[in-house]
Model the fold of this input.
Amino acid sequence: KEFLVEISGTTVTITCPLTANSITWKLAGVTLTSNERKYVIENHDSAPANVSCSSGDKEYHMYLNARVCTNCEELDALAVTGIITADLLITFGVLILVYYFSKDRKGRASPSAGSRPRGQKVQRPPPVPNPDYEPIRKGQREVYAGLESRGF
Done:
């Protein structure tokens, strides 16, 4: 069995796993006997503390390290979902507006001095090789047969 800890603002509520009528709570050396399974700590200062609850021969211990704040706002799941959904809708709306406004600008030519007409790129044929440096191909060795090395 486990403790149940609830935090709301600076109030911490601890529920003991025992179901007996008389429960003894110990918190930071202070002992309190109560008929309640819940122990409420008002204005908790976020300091770690050892908490225990006991009844008869059964005793449960817990190390409480709860962070609390005075200016916190609690949001339920519906509010968080609404905020995220609204943020996504606004973001997509801005994206669509930017897309449509930038789409119209693509067709206009800019009046800059260095602009040239943009057409399809025409592929040029490769440059004609210089016949003086034509590589030797198979079957054409006789063309170069008369070129022998000369001694100087």
